[in-house]
């Protein structure tokens, strides 16, 4: 279904949809006007904590042959990798901190501690996933090319193995993400340009070599006789990061209530409709502030999809306002505890391994009855505002 | 392995891995009338390419993937925008973000051939704006011009 046919919002008139869009714009403007030193201090503090944690882990692992040191070092390293990938790397690459004009904390310069090159992530995630969120045939995050995650997707006997593929994806998540921008579906359909694929593989290979050298050659070598302990610690920390990030990401769009869409009208989608698609296609989870930080603020997946380039530390206050808007406009706001959201995603994976005829849908019933809506004619639209702005500039 | 490479490998700040995402624009097609290479944002997957065109899908791709509208490669600092004086006044640019060098080359081509900037109706002297980042603004149902714009900050 196209966004304009989604029953969860067909009770709204087009004026109400646009009004909702204006209210969301106002939330955005409020954050932009107030972001400043406190936000900069947050991301700088987060990077400092992450680096100290990683350094402490490396020092502790020097004594890694002693079991408690191995356990402590591995845990700290796993947490450091989670913080680096999720609360720092993912959000920096969205441009959330570009306004600081910091040469290091900038979407164009950040390279993260995982096998996928940042450049490919910014294509597969920032563009493909965030622009085509939950649109079947466009958003490769729907099942990562190996899982059937929507009832609209055609069933194939190979889907019977989904619970196994899912477990493998969780354990090897870093490598699945590394290959994500290759677009496995396009390769399978022989639609992928082999020259582009070759270039991408070369780039992935360069990053993978660097990651493997760091985790499995250089740090173990620096540990001297304890090299084996360091190597297993690094592998375990990577595994912890893999499973955690997999679970968090699967809670973002696959719990009951997060909708899928088809591509009709995507080209002409208005900002308000885009907001609605993000809102209806995403799911939050509840938890403590620590849980949200460790999940890269993706417990606020709805707010992240509405405003992917606003600072992640502001999502909690944005969430209060977005939830109030959902109540006002009678729109679903999908949220729940982490265990419940992941449980629903896991149930979907398991159920959709079977044909639709053998299972039932778990999507909740949409709210109140629909009303007919129409798009504005050109003569009903005002022109853009003409005020002059000011910024650093150089006349060419 | 050289000592400097080892240092880079272990440094908390990792150097960017250069390469090519799936939007890399290694061999830009020439404009059919002017014969100059066409910017990434001015070409379509079906082969159409012209300095007079602005591909809305690629504009969005440049905005979200944070790639340059001319060369299709990852952006750098500062981010540059090329536009008309009116766009500068509105702080709303239609052409996607660019490398500073790519912005200069686009301006040079437009001036040399006295043609409008891609996506513009009239030829006017272009301006270059440099900034640290931008907001990507999608059109609302009320906008007459249904193209997204960029607000530099």
Report the span from N to C terminus of chain A.
47 Å
Would you report the number of β strands of chain A? 1
The helix-strand sequence of chain A is: HHHHHHHHHHHHHHE
**Backbone CA Rg of chain B:** 17 Å
Write out the strand line-up for the largest beta sheet of chain B, numbering strands in chain order: 1-2
Oligomeric organization of the protein chains = heterodimer
- Helical content of chain B stands at 10-25%
Largest sheet of chain A: none
Number of helices of chain A: 14
Indicate the percent of residues in helices of chain A. 40-55%
Instruction: Work out the largest interface and the residue count of each chain.
Output: A-B, 76 and 66 residues
Shape type of chain B: globular
Query: Any idea what the shape of chain A is?
Result: globular
Instruction: Write down the overall mean pLDDT of chain B.
Output: 87
Structural class of chain B: alpha+beta
Please indicate the count of domains of chain B.
Answer: 1
- Average pLDDT of chain A, rounded to a whole number, is 87
Could you state the order of secondary-structure elements of chain B as H and E? Answer: HHEHHEEE
What does the radius of gyration of chain A come to? Answer: 22 Å
Overview of the structural elements:
- The complex is a heterodimer of chains A (396) and B (153).
- Chain A is mostly helical and 396 residues long.
- Chain A has 14 helices and one strand.
- In chain A, 54% of the residues lie in helices and 1% in strands.
- The interface between A and B is large, with 76 and 66 residues.
Features:
heterodimer; A: 396 residues; mainly alpha; 54% helix; disordered C terminus; B: 153 residues; alpha+beta; two-stranded antiparallel ribbon; two-stranded antiparallel sheet; 25% helix; 12% strand
